[in-house]
Amino acid sequence: MKSEHQNTSTPKELKQRLSAAGIQASAPRMAIAQYVWNTCSHPTAEEVKTEVEKTFPTVSLATVYNTLNLFVEKGLLKEVKEPGSPGTRYDCNTKPHFHFVDESSGEIMDLDPRVLRVVPDMSLLGKNFQITDIEVTLRGRKI
Amino acid sequence: MKSEHQNTSTPKELKQRLSAAGIQASAPRMAIAQYVWNTCSHPTAEEVKTEVEKTFPTVSLATVYNTLNLFVEKGLLKEVKEPGSPGTRYDCNTKPHFHFVDESSGEIMDLDPRVLRVVPDMSLLGKNFQITDIEVTLRGRKI
DNA sequence: AATAGGTTTAGAATGATTCTAATCTAAATC
DNA sequence: GATTTAGATTAGAATCATTCTAAACCTATT
How far is the CA of A25 from the C1' of C25 (A)? Predict the structure, then answer.
């Protein structure tokens, strides 16, 4: 069961979302946002550059990294790193959800949060742990 | 609540464990195994090298990487990658357990599996997912 | 002790990411 | 609307993590 993404497509919506996060809009940022917020493929920086170049041919890799880092810092994007495969991937889905990684293809899929119930035992965990985020990755094979 | 590690310390035990995994023993491998299997600090390759150099000064970084990769491949060690911090870390604990990452220090701690109950809803997940591994990371602050 | 197979090594090479310093752009001021 | 200014973008250099290469080294076997 896959979960859905927000589809923020019009320039106006993009600009609003950037400015709501305290980010000033610009052509490269719009192009990058437009792509990363509408893909569920968890792309690498290199993949983002290749895609964005199609509509914005002069974009530089430095700008891609700057922008992705900025988006992560502002909570508009999440970093994902998979043991066994190199580099960082970017997840447009900042709502709580889980990942399934297909061990044969390496593909990362978002799972609906309802497929898994995670129940912390606070008495065991202790009062001195403040949890701000839970990340769950299932690994296996899709058949 | 922290979980405990196996403490495989004598040369004899180390050699047995390596050979049980189909790995032929050697001085650098013993030194590396001795260190990584007795630390709960989730060290990087660089940290392993620094530590191992104390007892085995000629060890090269290439050998550290070769050996850690070999151990991972043979299931004697697990890779851990944290979003926001660079490089790969190595976890000697191959039994099911969870991680807590302190967001202020970046420290990764092992948690006892009992602090969290993870309940997959197989009807929602669907029969076409074969799960071989579940990885859970809690992020937050220790106070 | 000669051989063969795997192991280690230093350093080069690669890949991912960040840094630098110059240039460009857009917002703010006159 | 021209000027200033702060911030954004760029190409390429620099850095960091990791892997590759090819020679030297061990260790088990003949």
Answer: 12
